[in-house]
Amino acid sequence: MDSITVHGNGPLHGEIPVSGAKNSAIKLMAASILTDQPLRLTNMPRLADTKFLGRLLRSFGVEVTENGHGSEQETLFHAAEISSTFAPYDLVRQMRASFNVLGPLLARTGHAKVSLPGGCTIGARPVDLHIDALTRLGASIHLEEGYVSAMAPGGLRGAEIEFPFVSVGATEHTLMAAVLARGTTVLKRAAREPEIGDLARCLVMMGANIEGIDTDTLVIEGVTSLSGGDWSVIPDRIEMGSYACAAAMAGGEVRLTRARPDLITALTDKMTAAGVEIEPTDDGVIVRRDPSVRLRATNVATEVYPGFATDLQAQFMTLMTTADGVSVIHENIFENRFMHAPELARLGADISVHAGEAHVTGVDRLKGAPVMATDLRASVSLVIAGLVAEGETSIGRVYHLDRGFERLEEKLGACGADIRRVKGPPVEGPDDDH
Ligand SMILES: CC(=O)N[C@H]1[C@@H](OP(=O)(O)OP(=O)(O)OC[C@H]2O[C@@H](n3ccc(=O)[nH]c3=O)[C@H](O)[C@@H]2O)O[C@H](CO)[C@@H](O)[C@@H]1O
Ligand SMILES: C=C(OP(=O)(O)O)C(=O)O
Predict the structure, then answer these.
(1) Among protein residues, the one whose CA lies closest to atom 1 of ligand 2
(2) What is the ipTM of this complex?
(3) pLDDT over 90 (residue 141)
(4) Catalytic site residue 202?
(5) pLDDT at 391 over 70
(6) Does the residue 428 lie in any domain?
(7) Measured in angstroms, how far is the CA atom of residue 163 from the centroid of ligand 2?
(8) Which of 55, 99, 107, 227 is 20 to 30 A away from residue 266, measured at CA?
(9) Which pTM does this prediction carry?
(10) Where in 100-228 does DSSP place strands (E)?
(11) Which residue's CA is minimally distant from atom 38 of ligand 1?
């Protein structure tokens, strides 16, 4: 199991290219099941999550071919025939999004058996909304021994579905099933995250009929088949926001390229309020901060898009650990997403957590220590803290980090960070303690 070692060594200077979005890529990959034609995804991140989902797709008979390096990375998915519709526990437990193959398998073949999902243990994370929505589309669903068995021998049929609250996963999942359903589906209180817009636009490119993209009401007119095509994955707003926080924490000047800052104004507005300079450029932003001036404590509350993303909460909390004053951070999406707080405390941060609210009292400095990555975004928040902590910070269980950040050491190292990976025995991916 690898670990990452960081020595706090002052400001960052340089350029970081932002990769394609994990949370878009993994849903687009699942969409490749919907067609017997090849779907080529460009700007594909190479991550543990895309690797594991690729393995799952291969087990259904999908051909998966990776090509190119760096900004040229692409993957071709060809589901000419689906030879299996069974997604075993061992492949699904590794990452939550693999559950989202259920809808596409069902829409394409009329049946599927998929294990209940795993994913980061940041809350209970049930899938009742997914199951209710697929049932409304005409699927007959049974839960047995940790598996969801779904049948729709005569095909799915359109329905009007109003989600009781906003769910990114349930919106994407139902959308993928509805594009091949008979008739019209209306999804109300749909999530509007940019990765859902990316998925919907790709489906339209493949021949789907979807209106209301980027709004909270999606109207889908089912079609009998979809074609393939080429699609470029949108830039990863969470990766961009994480490096913006890294630059703001260490100080200096970092240019983030191939990015979409318009997708994370909720973060950049808060960073500006805290005293970070954010300058838009043609293809991203420059993040600038004078390290001799302390940031101002700033409050945030996580919300559905376009609010402050839960996936950036840990990184912003790290930024506040050395700010001047007390910041209050509300986590409104997940009930257990402050696991980074005790780890940051090991570096000297002063954080108290009460239910969904954390109070961060800024300290003068952090000091390096061994810490443990507890989930994907928590792990990058510890790397960010390590950039300024005196001495050595060693972060264990970085397989969490590898799920969502490609070449992190290389990208931060190119800006002057003293960061290196210490190789350990290989792990197959996020494990049972995930
Ligand atoms: C709204 C939101 O910000 N969603 C985040 C969520 O997406 P993800 O798709 O994982 O989660 P959802 O958006 O579905 O979950 C939102 C909330 O609804 C609950 N829920 C969800 C589905 C369901 O069937 N029943 C149910 O009760 C969840 O437990 C959670 O409290 O985690 C991802 C990974 O961190 C983030 O990228 C998404 O931004
Ligand atoms: C927690 C995440 O992923 P997952 O939903 O797969 O656990 C994430 O992307 O931050």
Answers:
(1) 120
(2) 0.98
(3) yes
(4) no
(5) yes
(6) no
(7) 21
(8) 99
(9) 0.96
(10) 111-115, 140-144, 147-151, 160-162, 184-188, 209-211, 217-221
(11) 168
